[in-house]
Each structure stands twice: as C-alpha cells, then as structure tokens.
Write a structure and sequence with these properties.
The protein is mostly beta strands. The protein has five helices and 34 strands. The longest helix is centred in the N-terminal third of the chain and has 8 residues.
Amino acid sequence: MLRPLILYTCTFSLICAQEILQLDKIEVEDHYSVIEERKENSIAKRIIKGEELTQYGDMNALEVLKRTPGVTIPEGKGKKGSPGKGYTKVLVDGEEVSATSKRRGSPLEQISPDMIERIEVMTNGSAEYTAEAMGGIVNIVLKKPASEGKTIAKVTGGIYNEQPMASVFAQREGKNGDLSYLFNATYADNTHKDDSSTHIDEPPSVSEKITDEEGRFRALSLNTKLIYAPNAKTKYGFDASLGLNDAKSSSDERIYTNGILGNVIHNRDESDGVMLWTKLSGQHHISGTELAEWKLKYHQNDSDGENRSGTQLQYDESLFRVMGAEGSYSRAQGEHFIKTGAELKRLTQQEDIRILNSGIETSNEHQRLRQDKSSLYGQDEISVGENTILTPGIRYEYVSRDFGASSHLDYFAPSMHLLYRLTSNDNIRASIAKTVKLPRLDELSDTVDSSLELNDLNHPDVGGNTNLKEEKALSYEVRYEHFFEDKGIVSIGGFYRVIDDKIEKLTTLEGGRYVERPYNAGEAKLWSIELELKKSLSGFVNGLGVFGNATFQNSSLTLNDSKRPIKATNDYLYNVGIDHTLSVYRLTYGAAYRYVGGYDDPMDENGIAESQKGYGTLDLYATKRLDSTFKTGVNLKNLTGTTIETTTKRYASGSLVETQTDRVNSEPHILITLEGRW
C-alpha cells in the first residue's frame, strides 16, 4: 500500500515510488499514465498532460487555464476573464502566483504552454499546500530536464482580424555528469484588433458608444532549470526565470447622443513589465523511508504604465516582491505516510498613481503594503485495509499585515480526504476542508486606478477597501470515478461550500464617478455538480476519442435578512470535444467547443443589477508528423466569433434610472506552427 502513497505525496515533482529509495531519477516512468496516477492518488486531483495543453494553439498559461475545467481566473478589468470569482489559487511548481496591480497583466502571460509538463487541479484544500485554497488549487508543473540531450524549436505565426501574431520557442535539455540542465526562451509578438459597443439608456437621453481598439503585446521569457545530484541520496535544484513584456493599445470611442455624434474619445495605454523568479531547493534522503526537503525563493514583478484618455493622463507604477523559505520532512512507517512542514514568507507591494488633467496634477497617491505569513502543517496518509486511504491534516497560519493600518490574524485549517476503492476501476472520494481567502494586497490599497474619460457602469474606476476582512469557508466534496481499461474516465461529483464574510466587488457612485471596490457582503452558500468523460471510441472508429465536462452551480448570499445569488455566478458551463488520429497519414485533428452559461443578478445593496448572456467558442486543430524530426499544425480559433454581452441597471430610490448594455466582440483567427525535435 505504500507505493501509491509515496509516489504521489512525497514532492511537487511527482517522483516515482522508486525515488524514495533512489533520488537520481527525475521523471515519472513513461509507461505510468496520468489516468493511473489519478486513480491511485489519495487526494482528488485532475491531471492534464502537456500535449493536451498545446494542441489548441493557446499562446500562454493564462489562455490555457481559461479552458481548463474547474478553474476560475479573472483577467483584470472588464468582462473578458473566465467565469468565476477568482477563487482558484494558482501555483507554478508549488509557488503562488500573484498579479502585480489592479490594471496590469498577469505573470501567467509569461509562461508558454510548451514549458508546461502538466497541470494539476485539486478541488478541495489539503494541509500540505495552503489554507488559501477556497475554490481549489491549480499547480502548473513546468518541464524538468531529461537525462538524454534534446533540443526543441517551435515557430508559430498567424492572423487575428488582419493583424499578425507570432511566437518562437526554443529549448535545450540534457545531462552532464551529475548535472541535469534545461534552458528555454520564448519570444511572442502579437497584435489584435477588436470592437465593442455600449448602449446607455438614461432618460431622457439615449447614448451609444462605438469603440474600435488595436493593441500589441510583446514578451520575452528566459528560463533555467538545473538539478545537481552528487549521489543517490541528495539532490539540489536551481530555478530562474526572467520575463520582459511591453504592451500598447489604443482605442477610439465615438459617442452618439440621441443619434447625434457628440464626442470622440481617444484612449492610449502603454505599459512595460519585468518579472524575476528564482528558487534554490534541496532534497535529502535521510534513510530508506525518510526524506527532507527545503526551498529558498525570491520573486519580483515590476510594472510601469501610462494611460491617456482625452485631456486626462494617468501614470501608474507597481512593485511586488515575495521572499520566503520552507522545509518539510516525510516519513513512511507501517501503514502511514506522514509529512510535516513549515513556511515563512514576506510579500511587499508598492503602488504609485498620478493623474493629470490638461497638464495639471489632480491626484497623487502612494501606497506601501506588507504581509508576513508563517505556516505549520502536518498530514498523514493512512492505509486502512486494502481498499481505503484516509488523509487527515491540519495547517496553522499566522498573518501580519501593514497597509497604513495594521492587522494580525491566525487560523487553523483542518482537512480530511477519503479514497475508497469499490473495485480495481471504481473509486469513491469524499473530503471536507476549512479554507480561507485573504484579500489581495491591492484589494486593501486605498489607491484608485482611474478609467479616466471612459468611466461608466461597466468601466468603473477600481479601488481597494482598507476595512476588508478575510473570507472563511467550510467545503464538502464527494465524487465517483470509473476508469476504463483503455485509459478513459467517467466521473460525477459535487461540492457544497459555506462562506462567511463573502468578498464581492460592488460599484457605487463616488463624487459623480463610478468606482468598483471589494466589500464583505455577508454569508454565502455555493453548490455545484460536475460531470466528466474521456473515452476512446476505437472500437467503432479506429483512432477516435471524445471528451467532455460540465459544471452546474447555484448560490445564495444572505445579508440583513435578504437573500440573492452570489454576483456573476454562471448557471453552468461545459466543454465538449472530439479527436481523431489517422496513423497511416501521421495526422491528428479535432474540435473543442466551450460554452459559458449566463447569469441574472437582482439588485444589490448599492442599487446595481447585472445580467450576462451565455456565449460559446469553437476551436479546431490539426497536426501532422512530417518525419521523425518535424511536425506541423494548424489552429482555427474562436470560429464562432464570441460576443460577451453584459447588461447593467442602476436604481435610485427603487426606480430604474440607467440601463447600460455592453457588447465585447472578438474575431476568429488562424495559427500555423512548425516544430522540430533533435
């Protein structure tokens, strides 16, 4: 019973069971599939292989996560982010990822899908990771160096609404004596051209805003991974990543009032950023059943931006740093696999925002924020008989914050996971976990990121709330899994979550401008049913396979004896697809359709009601192996030309005073790739 326990819980690197005895192995055995791994894991986890992440032409990790089932990733302002409340905690090789500011891009945009070995999605928290696991954890596991020398090069080019898109990826990996190495570089240069419209009914006038937007995003990412194993019992690792990005966008907004062109607003936004990640780690095999691990890490994200709209100009600068250390000790003893650990981490963030109107400074804000967190945890995997594994754990975290005001809090986060094997191919899983969601530092900031002259109900200024408290939740989950002999799976599951001090973003009028801020809205409840299928149909058509997943959810929030849904909770969403391989032609092709259901929120306590229509996206792909070295591919993305339509209504004294409908349009585009491996 110890083999699966050790295999899946010893390290983030997912080392083989034999690595408990010999640490010189650095890869999971090729014949051990992710389906088998998922079946044996004591904690429920979806695993998505790197090959599945690149086939649909996503340009970075942020795009990949948007189509990953069970993941919610917000994308700055507006309605372009994937559905959900931003609950999912994202880790890269076990390290937390945080955005640098309210406006600027995500560090996930610096990660090419070709760098990713796999994505692990855990829908309920466990003591080993973080108590901030409300809505689940996603761990992006980057590729590690292989023992054999290998070079990969990939060129991608395409067209988006007559605008060029291109990226280049190159990687070299190998081993020299006791040192394994991996170096890769990605350069992307993408442009886009979109349009949107806004209809505002504010009696006695009716306004129409037509916006044409063009933009360009360039990014360079350099990455290094080194693993030094001087003997079978010791391994050291060094990871470093440097990312540089530059973004420019411009838009022309034509405003018609009662059918007459009244004003044209020219908007230009420019920014550049630097991301630096470093990590030094070690693994030490103390005995045949004991393992000690440690990490030292430093992360830094910088961004500088300039946003000009009409006569108004905003300069914003942000600096975000993370310094930390952690260690763990694992021991296999009888029917137990015990892991304990500790972590210390400091986060600091600086924000500076200046606003000028006709060259005269109207606002100059500075914010300095700091968070110190210390954590202790213990977790045990217990084999009970031949078919049952229990994984109890508890995590303690202490947090100290200084953001103009000071706060101190601590909490225990217990969890329990159950795996019961009905048969060799059928699992029942259940779990219960207490989790928290700490406000991000930028949510506590009292600085305001202005939308300048574009300010309206769906394009508000964005500010923080220094009185914001953490969310606390108790989450229950149950799931049934059936594994097919052909490595497929079908599962059905659900969760129920009770949340105290639910954080929601509410929009209000402040000094004649719309401002969006986070608030603790009340007690909330969220439940969901999730379905999943992945199955080969080779018995009917050779090389044919299908996949699909669906999520149905409902929610409620209670405040002052009134009840309403959690804001912007989509009723349902699903992904369906088909793949077919023609071996004789070395050709694989497929299609995937993703649909996000709408929502209809009643009036909130600030007099704002919002609804959004459902929308779907269709992607096609085909790849052909040219020879043993080269393969080529083509992606047809967003063939449905997705439009996201959001309607917002504002009430005053119970009467409707304004209705705004936004339509954000996107276009189909094509990508062509050529990849070589030597």
